Amino acid sequence: MISCTxxxxxxxxxxQFLEARGGREAVLDFWHYLSDNFLGNLKRLVQEHGLHGxxxxxxxxxxxxxxxxxxxxxxxxxxxxxxxxRCPSKSRLLECRRLQPYHDYCGHCDVLYRRVLEPLGYGxxxxxxxxxxxxxxxxxxxxxxxxxxxxxxxxFASCAGAPGE
Amino acid sequence: xxxxxxxxxxxxxxxLHKDFHGxxxxxxxxxxxxxxxxxxxxxxxxxxxxxxxxxxxxxxLEGLVAIRDHLAHMxxxxxxxxxxxxxxxxxxxxxxxxxxxxxxxRHGYPVARLFSETTRAVYEAICRGTPFKVQVLAYDESSGGxxxxxxxxxx
Lengths: 165, 155
What we know:
The complex is a heterodimer of chains A (165) and B (155). Chain A has 165 residues and is α+β, with helices and mostly antiparallel strands. Chain A contains 5 helices and 4 strands; from the N terminus they run αααββααββ. Chain A has one domain (4-159): Muramoyl-pentapeptide Carboxypeptidase, domain 2 (2-Layer Sandwich). In chain A, a hairpin with an 8-residue loop joins β3 and β4. Chain A is globular, with a radius of gyration of 16 Å. Chain B contains 6 helices and 5 strands. Chain B has helices at 19-35, 37-51, 53-62, 64-77, 99-107, 117-127; strands spanning 3-8, 82-86, 90-95, 132-139, 146-152. Chain B has a 4-stranded antiparallel beta sheet with strand order 2-3-5-4, with helices on one face. In chain B, α1 (19-35) crosses α2, α2 (37-51) crosses α6 (117-127) and α3 packs across α4 (64-77). Chain B is globular. Chains A and B meet through α1, α3 and β1 of A and β1, α1, α2, α4 and α6 of B.
């Protein structure tokens, strides 16, 4: 058995293995497969609960991944945002000296979730510009609320400092 | 509708996301479908040889107790019921039910047809280049329960 705590290096290695076999296309094809076959729970939650479904999904996964994060939901404004201050998976990968991380490891977070959320009518943006520091942010928004661009962090300034509200 | 904010730190929770077993299973099934069974074994073998290199080194230096301690720690972490019987020349691992398979069955994730290679190919790679070999004596596809024998190779 491979422990779930060893999964991230195994996942990164799989991306490398696929790229060696079939180039970048092979990696993207796998990410599409994974999104279609493995993220049914995210899809169901968002179909049932709207943006609150994102909250329900990531609240569990980020908790089980022991992430250092801030998650914000403003259903009235149609915005959901996660700021990952320290991604436990990416930081483990960066600290692992035995395996070179896949060069676009964080790319899967963009492809997998976008593929679920955009067909449901939501906007999705991943800011992976700080992924080298195991930090990122993602935003999901509802264009039906009149938003056609991602929110800036200031959009949530009014609810910051009210954890657990 | 109220705004909600949640702030958590790494120290607030234990790192144990068992859905990762389902993702690994999906990866194994994908490899199997697109590239064949040997690709699954090659991938797991390459991963294990690199990632578990310190365990292989410890196996060479300390013998089977290194594997015994690794397995005891891993199954304790995953709440798996196992029995380990260890001597200088042989280690028997008896797994009542694989915690990964149990989690996937419980949550409706498909179990890859070659998921057993996470036992066979991984342990073979860990033993490569050491005086020890491994045999999977039994593997139950439905529960992932298994009997695995690590032994000193006569050569």
